[in-house]
Amino acid sequence: MRPLEEILENYENTRESFKNFTNVGDSNKDTLLEYQQRFLDLKADLRPWHTKMMSASEMRSDKGATAIKMRIAIAMVKDEYVFAEGEKPMYDKPPTISNADKYAAATKQYKEFLDQRTFHKESFVNVADLREDLQGYITLCRDRQNK
User: Fold this and answer.
1) Contact present, 46 and 127 (Cβ < 8 Å)
2) Which residues contact 138 (CB under 8 A, 6 or more apart)?
């Protein structure tokens, strides 16, 4: 699997080159076919990243967030929760389960999970959008060839 940074750099270079090619007004079919193939290759290179980002995003679903929060809450009720360094307990004695649910939502561990969730969801959306953009360029190349 090619590094994502390399794919993105290649995409930007190819896109800029294609933009310059089309600004000149040249419609050489062989060159258009070459650009189409480059965009197809980039889209294929992104496929494993799309799958990886989708999987990482799904692992941090609403169900996952609720599960993490409940594990923290149960540990608080049992007085087994270990607070992160610099994090202070929000209670003096172990809370009830209904109160622990509220306290769990304020823990550093849960907030980090939510941050990861946001990051992975955004990453998945960005890769999916890039694949759509590549499909647009592929279609544009094909349309220009058929003129």
Assistant:
1) yes
2) 36, 39, 40, 43
List pLDDT tens digits, range 21-37.
999 877 789 999 999 99
DSSP 8-state symbol, 107? S
Where in the chain are the domains?
4-145
Unique residue bearing structure tokens 């923290």: 72
The rounded distance, in Å, linking the Cα atoms of 32 and 141 is 6
**At 132, is the secondary structure helix, strand, or coil?**
helix
pLDDT of residue 88: 87
Q: Is 87 left (phi over 0), alpha (psi -120 to 50) or beta?
A: beta
Distance from C-alpha of 41 to C-alpha of 123, rounded to nearest angstrom: 20
Quickly tell me which residue has 């007004």 as its tokens.
25
At 110, give phi and psi (nearest 5°).
Answer: -70, -40
pTM, 2 dp: 0.81
Among 62, 82, 64, 63, residue whose Cα is nearest residue 72: 82
- Based on the number of CB atoms within 10 Å of its own CB, is 6 exposed (0-12), middle (13-18) or buried (19 or more)? exposed
